[in-house]
Amino acid sequence: MYKCIFCLEEDVAKFNTIEHIVPESIGGGDWAILGTGLFCDKCQNTFGSTIEQQALADYPFSVMRTMLHIPTKKRKEAWFNNSKYKVFGSNTPNLIGLEITDKDLQKAAASGQIKTLKIPAFTKRPDMLLRTLLKIGIEVLAGTNPDFVFDSRFDPARIYALTGTKQYPWWFFQYENMNLFDRYFAKESWEDQHCFMYISTHESGFLYLHMRLFFYSFFVPLYANVILDKGYLPNEPYERVITVD
User: pLDDT band at 45, cuts 50/70/90?
Assistant: First the structure.
């Protein structure tokens, strides 16, 4: 069967590419390849050239890729920057590069006035991160149950992931495990580290994606209009609930 899980395209001639459920730029390998006939070329191009590209260049993926020396698809070192400095990976394990581009900051660092630099730990484009996580969730569901993924309850998730159009606010939960960060960062290679993703049913009845990627974990409801428990207070900054209105 050939049917795109996002746009519902069924023309066999339009399915010619290999899709990684977890993008290669954040560690996805052969273990993360989606089955044939579930993701059309047009949708793959849409996600890869716009949505995923923005999400992977933003926090937290940009920091994770740089810290763990995960190369890009073109085998180049990952990096991220702001208006004052650039942080980049290197070929030496456990060594991170820093280039200060702001002249005033250069002077302050040279004189010893500044001894540490803080990396901003917030997502500039939470919508792109959320849409990427929903895309992964739909693909994980397709990989385990290729018939059930076409259930109409997942239509809002597939439409929002692909087009950015939604009727209700959508949220996701992000958890950062610093103990795991220390352990992974001390390793000379990230390739043998454990990542997983699966679909679970919440006690309230909705399905959600649970994905762990090195020292980050994400929980994303795959149904629309799931109401977050207002009494829950995350343990900032390691736990965050991010809502996209």
Answer: very high
